[in-house]
Amino acid sequence: MLCDYHTHTRLTDGQGEPCDYARAAVAAGVAEIACTDHMPFASRHTHWHMRMDDLPLYAGWVEAARKEFPQLRILLGLELDYLPGIEAELRELQRRQEWDFFLGSVHYIGDWNHDAPEAVARWRDCDVDAAWTAYFKLLTDAARTGLYDSMAHPDLVKKFGFRPKCDPTPLFEPFLKACAETGTAIEVSTAGLHKPCKEIYPSLEMLKLARSLGVPITFGSDAHLARDVGRDFDKAVALAKAAGYSEFCRFWKRERQFQPLNQAE
User: Fold this and answer.
1) CA quadruple 32, 101, 138, 13: dihedral positive or negative?
2) Per DSSP, what are the bridge partners of residue 241?
3) Which partner for 189 in 140, 153, 206, 214 could form a disulfide, CB atoms 3.0-4.6 Å apart?
4) Across the chain, how many H-helices and E-strands are there?
């Protein structure tokens, strides 16, 4: 019962359409996927976010994939960025469709897209401890809104391998407590294995703390190519078990249910 809750299409920074991801999921033995393209941004413009007028097309693609692959459950979702003060914009977006699932993420520290390839030069010169502190403050604020079902790649800030000098555990705890208080899950993402950090998001240490605080988990590949659906999920399941998890989350119409972890193997 593999469930990949993080995929992107050509409307944003991925390739292909939901039917392509569905076809790959069936071939890989994945039972459920979520289409989670990057949200349309009313407050800023980027080349990797959906346009607002693409929303009906996107929803139509998902419906077409559901009809072509009835054996596969396909969720209509979005990856919703968090910026300070964006809550009203997100709520308006959430009213536009009958959504199944929302991922939350922090890609911007102020105006700095900290995980873009061009961010590496700035990482080399910045105060890494301060950047980590700012990132987790934003992530905590995002979780406190209660607007998300799961927080994507929660320690994305490690992507390029720049680590703080201090112990980051005190940064994790407020965020994870906010998740526990709002019933928000965190994503175990295999994407980090293929980035310079060479590590699943989140780290085992962070995942152990999440488990101790009762924070549930989802799984995601962050696939930008159909062939990456379910990639390295054996490693993600092993990490979750090592952290003490025995179940994971599934969603439908934003209603959460739990699935035994041994059914994700």
Assistant:
1) positive
2) none
3) 153
4) 8, 11
pLDDT, position 255:
97
CA 256, 1, 231, 9 dihedral sign is negative
Query: In Å, how far are 9, 83, 223 from 72, measured between CA atoms?
Result: 18, 34, 17
**Residue 101 DSSP SS3:** strand
Where in the chain are the domains? Answer: 2-264
Q: Domain 2-264 in CATH: superfamily?
A: Metal-dependent hydrolases (3.20.20.140)
Report how far residue 207's alpha carbon sits from residue 213's, in angstroms, rounded to the nearest whole number. 10
Q: Is 60 helix (H, G, I), strand (E, B) or coil?
A: helix
**Whether pLDDT at 164 is above 70:** yes
Inform me whether the pLDDT recorded for 152 exceeds 80. Answer: yes
**Sole residue written with tokens 């992507």:** 159
Q: Which residue has the higher pLDDT, 262 or 216?
A: 216
**Cβ 217 vs Cβ 240: under 8 Å:** yes
Q: According to the model, what pLDDT value does residue 11 have?
A: 97
pLDDT over 70 (residue 4): yes
Given a cut of 80, is residue 186 above it in pLDDT? Answer: yes
